[in-house]
Amino acid sequence: MLSPAPAKSTTIEKGSSLGRDAWLRLKKNHLAMASLWFTILIILVSFLLPLVPGIPDPNTTHPDLQSMPAFSSATSMDGKEVYYLLGSDPLGRDVFSRILYGGRVSLSVGFLATFVSLTIGVIYGAVSGYLGGRIDAVMMRIVDILYALPFMIIVIILSTYVAEMGDWKPVRFLNELFGNSLWLLFLCIGAVEWLTMARIVRGQVRSLKGQEFIDAARSLGLSQSRIIFRHLIPNTLGPVIVYTTLTVPAVMRLEAILSFLGLGVQPPDASWGSLIKEGADLMASDPGLLIYPAVVFGLTLFCLNFLGDGLRDALDPKSSKD
User: Fold this and answer.
1) Which pLDDT tens digit goes with each residue over 259-272?
2) Contacts of 237 (CB under 8 A, 6+ apart)
3) Is 72 left (phi over 0), alpha (psi -120 to 50) or beta?
4) Domain 97-208+236-319 has CATH 1.10.10.10
């Protein structure tokens, strides 16, 4: 008697999402992964380490402990034992603590101003690319005009104008919430950096709006706003994410330039840019004041750029060599 043939085992291959594929490609890029972990470490250290007891206030001065060397401890006039991990500045303030708090400011400006530019640029570029025609031409000419305006002059004008409005309740509230002139950096930098984002999204939308899934959405009677926000913008997230990671270091550089020129964060608050400015003024007598914040700032910018390059390769399927 013949025995029945064994049933064939059917195995269902598990599918993989685009996000998972991108993450697997990113993990193969060791430089990008190292940059990712370093960036996360800098963010955690800058925002969480100052909460640990024992980290001194960055604005506490000790006039009798000026320009102390790194890894030194001393007793101030009021009998307080002070330990300087990276030394002190000419006012007796702890350099390590000021770098931590300066990182808070620089990273906050970088991410929040990028969020502002991302929001404006994505919506503006998507609307312009989808509507097309004369509306697209007018909207892009506005972008060209804004490109031609000198950025520094705009910041100086806005800074002067806001300073004169310091008694106005909304301005006073923003100064108390974010710090004097810090929210102005969000506004100025974010209002300029969205221009390139708008052009990128416009180009992506123009290439997508003629495809079949958009024709199907129109045939279903969906409104233009629903097509833009539910179908077009989600399909542009790849280039948007890549450019966002490259915008953050660009914004941080702009903030550092403004602070270096005295147009950014105002004393006694500090950012990495203002700390580099203070260190440059005293480079001959105390080079550590320049070297420490410059090294941290430079490494952070390098890592953000390497991470952006890695995300660009990971999110572009054509870049995969598998």
Assistant:
1) 777 777 777 778 88
2) none
3) beta
4) no
Find out whether 190 and 116 touch, Cβ atoms under 8 Å.
Answer: yes
Tens digit of each residue's pLDDT (9 = 90 or more) over 105-149: 888 888 888 888 888 889 999 999 988 889 889 999 998 888 887
Helices (H), the chain: 18-28, 30-48, 95-131, 133-148, 151-164, 169-178, 182-208, 212-219, 224-227, 237-260, 272-281, 288-315
State residue 68 phi and psi, 5-degree precision.
-75, 145
Backbone angles phi, psi at 7, to 5 degrees: -70, 135
In DSSP terms, which residues pair with 25 in a beta bridge?
Answer: none
Q: Assess whether the previous peptide bond of 90 is cis (omega < 30° from 0).
A: no
pTM of the prediction? 0.79
The C-alpha atoms of residue 107 and residue 47 are separated, in whole angstroms, by: 9
The four Cα atoms 304, 310, 312, 313 give a dihedral, to 10 degrees, of: 170
What is the secondary structure of 64-128 as a DSSP string?
A: TSTTPPTTEEEE-TTS-EEEESS-B-TT--BHHHHHHHHHHHHHHHHHHHHHHHHHHHHHHHHHH
CA distance 316 to 314: 6
Q: Is 63 left (phi over 0), alpha (psi -120 to 50) or beta?
A: alpha
Question: pLDDT value at position 138?
Answer: 92
Domain boundaries, the chain: 97-208+236-319
Q: In this predicted structure, what is the pLDDT of residue 37?
A: 93
